[in-house]
Amino acid sequence: MDKTTRFPISLSGYEIEGLLGSDAPRLVRLYQACADYVALERGEEPSAAIAREEFESFPPNRTEADKFVFGLKAVDGEIVGLLACDRGYPQPGCWWIALLVIDKSLRGQGVGRALCHDFFRWLKLRNVERVELGVIEENKQALRFWRGLGFELVRTAGPVSFGVKQHMVQVLGRAL
Question: How many CA atoms lie within 13 A of 135 on its CB side?
Answer without folding.
Answer: 20
